[in-house]
Amino acid sequence: MNRKTGPEVADLFIIGGGINGCGIARDATGRGLSVVLAEQNDLASATSSASTKLFHGGLRYLEYFEFRLVREALEERETLLVAMPHISWPMRFVLPYHPNMRFEGDTPTGRLLSRLMPWMKGRRPAWLIRLGLFLYDTLGGRKILPATRTLDLTRDPAGKPLQSRFRHAYEYSDCWVEDSKLVSLNARDAAQRGATVLTRTRVTSATRQGDLWEIVTQGPEGTETFHARALVNAGGPWVEDVIRNVARINSSEGVRLVRGSHIVTKKLYDHDRCYFFQGTDGRIIFAIPYEQDFTLIGTTDKDHKGAPKDAACTDEERDYLLKFASQYFANPVTVKDVVWTYSGVRPLYNDGAKSATAATRDYVLSLDANGAPLLNVFGGKITTYRRLAESALEKLQPFFPQAKGPWTARVALPGGDFAHDAVPALTAALKSRFPFLTDYWAARLIRAYGTEAETIMGNAQTAADLGHDFGATLTEAEVRWLMRHEFARAAADVVWRRTKLGLRMTQEQIAALDAFMANAAPGAISPAAE
């Protein structure tokens, strides 16, 4: 290997800088393995930045009897809350219920009900929903999050934005997560532990050479050749392409590309709870308070036929989400309310399911040990990324008997070394230390950087001490931190992935940021986080 930062022969070479690739890199490096990771674009530039931003068990997966997946995800919610309290926090979800609501019957639960209770004709009885929520409360050994409760929507503020026909609801717990920030922090932690993380570096070929893999990349340093004892294909939507066109291996395994689109609207209601809406087509969507001044609505489930990079929210999907939400909200949600849309492609394991909605969200790890080992990662949920990484290392353990055991549970990510309920106190302390910060600014910094927010601020006495003001509270000090520590290279990395300040900045401000980063790049960026 040419780089001074990496080993002559790495233990693992990982293709893909999404949550699965970066999660595996962090776990493996902490076990004492040498790791190189290559991502063709920015970290979390595809699926991992286009989620619904939830650490959740997947309440609707109970309809498909996926109890193991739900239990594992529920167990992970609180494990992850402890490890990253700055970028993940509890939220309460309101599930409105009306006895005449009907649902698509083509799920295991729907088919069972149609046989046992044909007179229900697609309706879900209240006792069944309560049973599902009881399982949701108990399967994961919940300790931090509050339990489900019943709401009277005629009295509770959560009923005010809804149509008057909804008089009752159930309120349960799940968690928010800043998805792309989760990826960059895993990559940073891996780099701090010794991994080499290469962004904007495409793997052009991977070839078995005896008991090693020879990997050729094309990136900022030109063409480079690496050698590794094992190859991990965490290419996400490109996992099948890596198998066939990069490693050139014949395989019957593949992915089902499912597009999930979201819309962001102006703020639709004043309280801080989320809504779980059930549709007559068997789908569900969420309406979630977003970035303090907006509402996030999603997601769709549509089979995606084009290139993953071309995923975009279509007018049809936008209108579907608007119509869906308007079946619940008293004031219809219209195109005029939409301020932004985004879409990502989920690489679900192709299990032959009839519809995109029914396809499994569980992950599948496929090991090819015909020579130097190749581990292909299919599917997965952001909630279970840490468990997926542990399972991946378990698969690879026979090839690396010197590797240490699992270690990541409840170990804080950078900036997350504080109690899960201490965000208000940290925010107040930051504002006290730097009185020129507004409430919004201080809260945003703590939610992005946790205990490291004060380090970013340095000895600033005024906002001007933080350098150039790019707008929307984004300063030169923060941008340089993201370039040095979180692999940001261009404006989009900062304003749409490390933050969501693109919702508040003008095109001119974003262009100025891009120019600044391009000029600052040679002297400001380290290939490994400091």
Key features of this structure:
eight-stranded mixed beta sheet; globular; disordered C terminus
Structure, described:
The protein has 530 residues and is an alpha+beta fold. The chain contains 14 helices and 20 strands. Strands 3, 4, 5, 6, 11, 12, 13, 14, 15 and 16 form a ten-stranded mixed sheet that branches. Strand 9 (212-219) and strand 10 (222-233) form a beta hairpin. Helix 1 packs parallel to helix 5 and helix 9 crosses helix 10. The chain is globular, with a radius of gyration of 23 Å.
Shape: globular
The counted number of beta strands is 20
Structural class: alpha+beta
Low-confidence stretches: 522-530
| Distinct helical segment count | 14
Q: Percent range for helical residues?
A: 25-40%
Mean pLDDT across residues: 91
End-to-end Cα distance, whole Å, is: 22 Å
Largest sheet: 10 strands, mixed
Give the percentage of residues in beta strands.
15-25%
Which radius of gyration do the C-alpha atoms yield?
23 Å
Topology at a glance:
Blueprint: E1 10-15, H1 19-30, E2 35-38, E3 54-55, H2 67-83, E4 88-97, H3 108-116, H4 126-138, E5 149-152, E6 168-177, H5 179-192, E7 196-198, E8 202-209, E9 212-219, E10 222-233, H6 239-246, E11 255-266, E12 274-278, E13 284-290, E14 294-298, E15 302-303, H7 315-326, E16 338-349, E17 364-368, E18 374-378, H8 385-396, H9 423-433, H10 439-449, H11 453-457, E19 469-471, E20 474-475, H12 476-485, H13 491-498, H14 507-524
Parallel strand pairs: 1-2, 1-10, 2-7, 4-12, 10-18
Antiparallel strand pairs: 3-6, 4-6, 5-6, 8-9, 9-10, 11-14, 11-15, 11-16, 12-13, 13-14, 17-18, 19-20
Helix pairs in contact: 1-5, 1-8, 9-10
